[in-house]
Amino acid sequence: MAVNAAFGGVVRRREDPRLITGAGLYTDDVRLDRCLHAVFVRSSIAHARIRSVDVALASAMPGVVGIFGAKDFEFESMTARPRLASEMVLFVGDAIAVAVAETRDQAVDAAAAVVVDYDPLPAVVDSIKALEPDADLVQPDRDDNLVIDFEVGEAGALDGADVAIKARFINQRLAAVPIEANAVAAEPDGEGGIRIWASTQVPFRVRTQVAEALGLPETKVQVIAPDVGGAFGAKLMTYPEQTVLCAVAQKLDRPVRWFEYRSENMVAMSHGRAQAQDVALGATREGKLVGLDLEIVADCGADAGIGAALPGYTMLLSSGCYDIPKIRVRTRTALTNTTIVSAYRGAGRPEAIAMIERAMDMLATELGLDPAELRRRNFIRGGFPFTTAAGATYDSGDYSRALDLALDALGYDELRREQKARRERGDRALLGVGISSYVEMTAVQLTSEFGFARASADGSFTVGVGTSSSGQGHETAYAQLAASLLGVPMDRISVIQSDTNQVRSGDGTYGSRSLQLGGSAVRGACIALVRKAREEAARRLEASVEDIERTADGGFGVRGVPGSSMSWTDLAGEAMLVAEDEFEQDGQTFPFGCHVAVVEVDVETGDTRLIRHVAVDDCG
To answer: Which domain covers residue 522, as residue numbers?
Structure first.
C-alpha cells in the first residue's frame, strides 16, 4: 500500500511485502528445539466453587509431561486475579490448569481429559442488576459488586432547559477477535533467565509482570513481540497465561508454546465496550444547549482491570465538540461473572461521541431543527485551550469548518431536498443522512516514550523506539521521519522495536500514542544525533560548530570552504554516533473531524445500502 509521505513524495509501506506474502514471523511461527505444547483447562460455567480437579487420566496419556494447577507454582508476586483458579471460577473461560505435552494434539487431548467437579453458584451477568442491593456477589471477599463510583458536576444540569430529551444507549459488549489470537512461546536462556515471544502491544509490561512473578531481575527476562496480527487494545493487558507459560518453561527447563484456538479466544481474551448510558440533554427553544446529565454503568467483567477505568474517558469527552455550560456525569463500574473487559479501539472515547451525537440528533428532531444547524449553534468556537464542564482541556479545534467541508463535499442541501421528495412520494427506498462531529483524545495516559538513533560506519542507520506495532506501519513511519531529519535515503534506515533487549525502555502501543510520543522520541534522538555529528565534524575539520552546515549530499562541511565536507560514514568510522531521547508530554491532544454517511433504506425489508461516506479529519 502506498502512503503519502509527510516529508515529500509517496512511499510504499516497507512492512507489507513480508506480511502479504506469508513471510512474516508471528509468535506461533517461532520454532524452538525440544519445544513442548501447552493447552489450558478452562471453566465451562460462569461461577462456581471448585470441589476437585482430577488429572489422573490426563497425566497418564501418551506424550503428557504434566498437568499443572495453581498449587504447582510458587509465584513471587500476587495479582488481584489468580493466574490459575484454585478455589473458585468467575467466568466461562477462567483458566484452572495447563496441560503440557510433546505435541499440540496430545496437549489438547490431555486438557479435555481433566475432570473438574464444580459447585455451581448464581452467576451475575448484567452490570445494572449487579449493582442492585440484593445482587449476588461476584467476588466473595467484597461487600458488593461496585468497583468505581465517580461523579463530576452537580445536580440540576438541565435547569433552564425549555426542551430536553432522555434516552438509554447500550454500547454492547464485544470480542476483539484479532486475526492472530493470543500466543506465547517461552524458553529458558541457559543462564537463569527466560526469553519470551508474545503477541502483545506492551512488551515491557510483560517483562515486568514475568520478572516479578518469577523473582527475576528484569535484565534476566527478554520479551520479543514479533509480527503481531492485530491487537485493537485487547493485547494491552498482561495476561496470566504469559506468566504461567514462563513458569512452566522454568519448571521443566524446556521451551513451551501456546496459542489460543478461536473458540478459546472468544472467552479468554479481553472484551470491549460494555457500557449502559442514561442520558438527558437540554436546550433552549432557540437550540442553545443548556446542560447534559449522564449516568454510565460499565461492565468490567470478573476483575477490575483496565476496563474499570475506561468510563473516565467517556466522562471527559461527554460534551463532544459542544459548548455545554453544565454537565453532571456519574460513572459506575460493576463486576460481573463474564470475561474481563479491557481497552478496545478508542477505549471509552468513541462511546462518548456515539452518545452525544445520538442525543444531538434526537434533540434536533424535538426542536424541529436541521441536525447540522443544531451542531453549528453549539460548537465550541475559539478560546483554545478550552476546558469543558466535564474537565477536559481541548488544545485546539475548528469543528464548524470540518462540518462545512463535509457537507459541501456531499451537496448537503440537495440531499435534504431529495430526502424530502422521496418521503412525500412514499418511495420504498428512502434516504438517510447521518452526521457525526467528533473530538478524540490521543496519548491518553501522560507517560513518556524512549527513542534512539545510531549511525554506523557502513553508512546505515538504526532508530529504536519503545512502541510496538500490530499493523500500524511503524517501520515505515519512523523510517520516513528519521530519513527527513538525518538527511539520508530512507532505505538506509532500519527500525528496531518490540524487543526489550534491543530497546532500553518503552511503554508500548495504545491510546493513539505511538507517533505522537514514539515519533517525537525518534525526532528528538535524530536531532541530537545530527548535533553530535556536527560537533564531531567541527572537531575533525578544526572549525566552530556554528560554521558547520549540511551539504547537498547529506554530509557536513565548513561554511564558505568548498571541499571540506565529511560524510556520515567518515564521522561514524571513528566516533560513536548514537543519541537517545525520552519524550514527555504535558497534556493530551484532541484531534477532531466530521463524518457524514448517506444511506438508502428499503422500508419494507430494512435492507440498507451505503451511497456515500465523507470524512474530514484533523491530521495535525
So the answer is: 449-583
| Number of domains making up the chain | 4
> Per-residue pLDDT for 563 more than 90?
no
Together in a domain, 539 and 595: no
What is d(CA 269, CA 280) in angstroms, rounded to the nearest whole number?
Answer: 34
Name beta bridge partners: 491.
none
Contacts of 78 (CB under 8 A, 6+ apart): none
User: Where does a domain end: 215, 234, 268?
Assistant: 268
Q: Are 229 and 470 in contact (CB under 8 A)?
A: yes
- Whether 390 is covered by a domain: the verdict is no
Task: Kindly report each contact of residues 285-289 with a partner whose C-beta sits within 8 Å and lies 24 or more positions away, as own/partner.
Answer: 285/162, 285/163, 285/367, 286/377, 287/367, 287/369, 287/373, 287/374, 287/377, 287/378, 288/377, 288/378, 289/322, 289/323, 289/324, 289/325, 289/378
Q: What is the DSSP letter of 519?
A: I
Domain boundary among 325, 350, 367: 367
| Res 2 pLDDT > 70 | no
Residue 195 and residue 81 in one domain? yes
The verdict on 503 and 563 lying in the same domain is: yes
503 burial type by CB count under 10 A (0-12 exposed, 13-18 middle, 19+ buried): buried
Task: Give residues with Cβ within 8 angstroms of 458, minimum separation 6.
Answer: 569
335 belongs to a structural domain: yes
Q: How far apart are CA 510 and CA 514, in angstroms?
A: 7
Report yes or no on 577 lying in a domain.
Answer: yes
Query: 18 pLDDT band (50/70/90 cuts)?
Result: very high
pLDDT band at 586 (very low <50, low <70, confident <90, very high): confident
Partners of 39 in the beta sheet?
A: 99
For 140, the grid coordinates are: 466473595
* Distance between CA atoms of residues 252 and 273, nearest Å: 39
CA 99, distance to chain mean position in Å, is 31
